[in-house]
Amino acid sequence: MRLRIIFSVLGIAMFFLIPKLFADYNLYQFCLIAVTSLIVLGLVIVTGIAGQISLGQSAFVALGGYGAAILATNWGVPLWLGIPLVAVLVATVGFLLGLMTLRVEGHYLALTTMAFTAIVQLALVHADAVTGGAAGMPVPSFELFGKSLSTGAELYYLIVPITALLFIVVINLNNSRTGRVFAAIRQSEIAAEAMGVNILVYKASAFAASAFLGAIGGGLLAILVTYLDPAQFGITQTVYYLAIAVVGGLLSPFGAIIGTTVFVFLPEFLQTFQTYLGLVFGIMLLGFIVLRPKGLASLIDIENLKKIVFKSRRESVGS
Amino acid sequence: MEANILGVNNVTVQFGGIIALSDVSLEVTPGTIHAVIGPNGAGKSTLLNVISGIYSATKGDVSFEGERLSGLAGHEINAKGVARTFQNTELFKEMTALENVKVGLDRFHACGVINSALHTKQWKKSDAEADEAARELLKLVGLGDDETSSAGILPFGKQRRLEIARALATRPKLLLLDEPAAGLRAAEVEDLIAILRELKTNQGLTILIIDHVMALVMAISDRISVLNFGHKIADGAPKEIRESAEVIKAYLGEKAADAYST
Amino acid sequence: MLGQLLASSVTAGAVYALVALGFVLIHKGTGVVHFGYGDQVTFGAYLVLIIQFLTGLPFWPAVIVALFASAFLGWAIYNGLMRPLRNAPLLVQIIATLALGTVMREFLRAYMGPNAWSFPFLLTSSSFDLGGILLVPANLAIVGVSLALLCLLFFLFERTFRGKSIIAACDNRTGASLVGVSVSGVFSSIWMLASVIATVAGILVAPVLTLSPEMGLIGIKGFVAAILGGFNSLTGAVVGGILLGVIETLVGAYISSALKDMISYGILILVVLVRPQGLLGILSVKKV
């Protein structure tokens, strides 16, 4: 318990200290990491923890981003309201998509979710009346209490707390019944069903959760990049999110943060090799899935750390 | 005669052209241990899979406490009070023994998504209760010291017992055991017999068990049904089954049965 | 008008059919779905250009070298990647093939640049008139090669000992190895064959589509064709491919050009939900 308080205090102190220490550009990067890790977190839940392969993540991101931007542009719904509103709708779409798992699994699930991504992308191209078609559309600025947020620092104070809150919720749920049932479904569907788990509802819920996080991430991403076009949301992008999840660690919410940090900062170090960036990402994905399929998070054994902390505490209580 | 807790009524199961079960009926009396035996391929596992909702019967139906089970999904059947174990153990291998049991227990210790998401005091309380209940079950099957071990690395005999603990966690009235003694050493079979007796006498559980291990079946069963090639060929007390020519024929062949009867 | 539409839709369909044949071959033969196959088709076409750059060979010899090189590539993919992963969870296999496709595509982007390359037609691309319908020899070649490959594969699987041992190896790995079939040898040759098909498809398709690293997206249409026809059926792959080409062209011409691409993905989802075994496939019963 005491450890938790210390960590919370440290975290909050760091949160307020960081904007003083880093340049605006770095803060913008932190925002990008936060948003991308939210999107990847969705993938970690559905594909990593619940074991249902999804190639639909960038479609959820697209729906979240475009949805909020269109509501704001055409109907004047402010983004702070539009983003969560749209995310709930997208979560419903995710739930319906998840209900397909009743009939579809494995390869077929990968193909269907891939087709879903392709359909959404094509719809964005062809619905040019509201989306601007292949050329894309600008995102209205994010206004809160009459003030428009645009600099890295301003967005930092918006995006990082939202991300932190959602991560805490997901980590807590992962450590309670929901997470256990998801993991149970991944490890043996037939046993989970026999233990009284309505696996269809849970699988659909995993999709809904990943859609919700993807859509929130998409809305925030729209604010960050200020311009949306369909090319940002294709199958290639879905594989990019998957690569982040795999490199970070598919089985752990922390994997989403670790993976995203690597993928956002790597281009900085490889600036002279910009042309090889995509290749480096591809090779990393291939290397990790073959040699270390549980990703970087498995190098830092969080469960083991927990055990050590708990054990030492129990022993000290006992003695 | 007491009303049965489980009734299998004229069940036929067909896969394509293969008939796995043919017009099989049996009745299980509450508070008893009922065994189903038979040679390989007799349809024993199919029978269990039909009762627990993994397969559906082509003809006939299954009733539990007077309600029809046929047509219900596996989780609904479990909610009615029927739990099972699996022949080739279907544990959640990457979870600890304690977590395996908690998957079954959790719905009795639920406290809502919001409490879980924020890990409120109420959640902590119900989670601690679930832990306590899970430990009790692990102790019951003799796994008290293994709660933090991953299920996948437990020795085989312990995995079998963990499956029983996990099934018990869903608070069943009827427990279906699919070859719980297969591959166990003699000492482990003794442990299993003790556990099953304890469940029957002290917890009032009804058990339907499938097994090849005669030492186990003869020691604990109140009643035995025998399947052969999808047909029920005998049904009775262990003593009657042991002396049935029909059964000996199924197991040992015609000549042995003749030799035995003369 | 309709006749002309059908003639050109069959070409598009034959392209899908070629790609679908490769998928189905790998899936039927080794149980793996190669999600990077579309990229491998692109890679195959680029291989000819790369060999020309490196060796200065003329086009046709370069094609022959490329075919041998892709057989080696297939061997390397199986022995270097898929064989070590043969007991890995399905999820890992799916991601590995996706990653393989990404690596190929990004290699081409880095090494050959992101822009399109021109690629010569094998036969003339100037059309001739047949009973009022304009036909293009280069397109006919695609149709012809698809059908020829189908016949060849059909013969290989159904009529030869090798083919029978392949089917045996897929059905039951242990059983096949007990009767003396080398499973890894069989799988190895399937990957080699599928890689050669990818290169053939790439060479035929590159001049019709545009040869850029993104051409691999054609792979998805190949999936749709394979699913439509039945994922385990070689004939189904060709039928599914042609059918998809026809449906797309008709929808594009008579309903809306915006729907043309979407319809194929819609078909994929519909078929998977309603008739997962496809038109010509056989549903396998899962054992619990």
Automatic annotation (TrEMBL), chain A:
Give the bilayer topology.
Multi-pass membrane protein
Q: Which PANTHER family match?
A: HIGH-AFFINITY BRANCHED-CHAIN AMINO ACID TRANSPORT PROTEIN BRAE, HIGH-AFFINITY BRANCHED-CHAIN AMINO ACID TRANSPORT SYSTEM PERMEASE
Q: Which cell locations does it reside in?
A: Cell membrane
Signal sequence span is none
Sorted alphabetically, which CDD domains does this protein's record hold?
Answer: TM_PBP1_LivM_like
Taxonomic superkingdom: Bacteria
Keywords of the record, alphabetical order, are: Cell membrane, Membrane, Transmembrane, Transmembrane helix
Q: Does the keyword Transmembrane helix apply?
A: yes
Q: Which residues cross the membrane?
A: 5-21, 27-46, 58-77, 83-102, 109-135, 155-174, 207-228, 240-267, 273-291
Give one GO molecular function term. branched-chain amino acid transmembrane transporter activity
For this UniProt entry, what is the primary localization, expressed as one broad class? membrane
In its UniProt entry, the species of origin is given as Sneathiella litorea
What protein am I looking at? Branched-chain amino acid ABC transporter permease
Q: Which GO terms describe its cellular component?
A: plasma membrane
Automatic annotation (TrEMBL), chain B:
Record key words, sorted: ATP-binding, Nucleotide-binding, Transport
Show the PROSITE patterns listed in the entry: ABC_TRANSPORTER_2 (PS50893)
Start and end of every ABC transporter domain? 6-254
Tell me a GO biological process for this protein. Answer: D-alanine transmembrane transport
Q: Which Gene Ontology MF annotations are present?
A: ATP binding; ATP hydrolysis activity; L-isoleucine transmembrane transporter activity; L-phenylalanine transmembrane transporter activity; L-valine transmembrane transporter activity
Q: Name one Pfam family in it.
A: BCA_ABC_TP_C
Record SMART domains: AAA (SM00382)
> Would you tell me the Gene Ontology cellular component terms?
plasma membrane
User: This protein is called what?
Assistant: ATP-binding cassette domain-containing protein
**What is the scientific name of the source organism?**
Sneathiella litorea
UniProtKB/TrEMBL annotation, chain C:
Q: Which residues cross the membrane?
A: 6-26, 33-53, 59-78, 90-112, 132-157, 178-209, 215-231, 238-256, 262-285
Domain of life assignment: Bacteria
GO terms, molecular function: transmembrane transporter activity
Family matches, as Pfam families? BPD_transp_2
Q: Which UniProt keywords apply?
A: Amino-acid transport, Cell membrane, Membrane, Transmembrane, Transmembrane helix, Transport
Look up and give the membrane topology term: Multi-pass membrane protein
Q: Where does it sit, as one GO cellular component term?
A: plasma membrane
Q: Where found?
A: Cell membrane
Provide a GO biological process annotation: amino acid transport
Q: What main location does UniProt list? A: membrane
Which family is this sequence assigned to?
Belongs to the binding-protein-dependent transport system permease family. LivHM subfamily.
Q: What is this protein called?
A: Branched-chain amino acid ABC transporter permease
- Record organism: Sneathiella litorea
